[in-house]
Specification:
Shape of chain A: elongated
Oligomer: homodimer
Strand content of chain A: under 5%
Radius of gyration of chain A: 24 Å
Distance between the termini of chain A: 64 Å
Number of strands of chain A: 2
Largest sheet of chain A: 2 strands, antiparallel
Chain lengths: 135, 135
Amino acid sequence: MTEFPIGRLSAETGVNIETIRFYEKIGLMPKPHRTEGGRRLYDRGGATRLRFIRRARELGFSIDDIRGFLGLHDQPPTCAEVYETASRHRAVIREKVADLKRLDLRLSSIMGACTQSETPDCPLLDALLEPRSVI
Amino acid sequence: MTEFPIGRLSAETGVNIETIRFYEKIGLMPKPHRTEGGRRLYDRGGATRLRFIRRARELGFSIDDIRGFLGLHDQPPTCAEVYETASRHRAVIREKVADLKRLDLRLSSIMGACTQSETPDCPLLDALLEPRSVI
DNA sequence: CTAACATCTGTAGTGACTACAGAAGCAAGA
DNA sequence: TCTTGCTTCTGTAGTCACTACAGATGTTAG
């Protein structure tokens, strides 16, 4: 047999069984064959497609981006369109990095005021209460 | 009157009306007075508390962290406990920054292969399909 | 034949809100 | 007093990308 059940697909691709079924429900994975008893049977193509989805997810692309890559919106995209999606995605990532770095600075700044004592009197919480603090 | 309705509280603190009601539902904000007609009335204390919550959220603390700060888990926390929470939070932020930077590198790497042509033949998508790619 | 395991469907939960629908309170002007 | 228009009310459902069950049934090795 060239077909295999969902458990093997899951083991082979590193994608959870429930996630595979979820991808099918939202139309990202096509409906596979079934055994007479109703169990899903996948082939090589299914594994390739699922791995593609997993890699794209690992790179942080949204389900909707992936739908586009797979041509599920309309046509399969041109190379330029894919680049455009990736480029916008990277811009979001870079903005997130900048945001988180600013957050780190602000947090570190108020943490510096902390005495770390065992009393409930905490400059860190005070900093959150004071409108004119470093925050 | 020293009391004011939810709209003014919202305007004053920059927190959405629906969010204020949400905070009340989950017990982060206490139940306020009501007019005879059933509308919420807040005082200065309410505004101070809500601003505290907003600042903590801006710093990325979870609702549960904030519950701890406000002493809603058990007692009001000691300064050392607050510092510990902040410290763990900062560690998560730094890990996220590192993750996102790695993501940027990987993404940039495969974007470099892209021809940005108008054809559907896309090295970027191929990179996601190939198991042995740079990704 | 049976025990153990794999898989099935469907629903609800996660976090931190946001977006409505439909009803009702409230304040200012005519 | 009445109306107009704004504000607020409750309750539910949607967001994103899954994850975690419960309870039933298929499949396979010994």
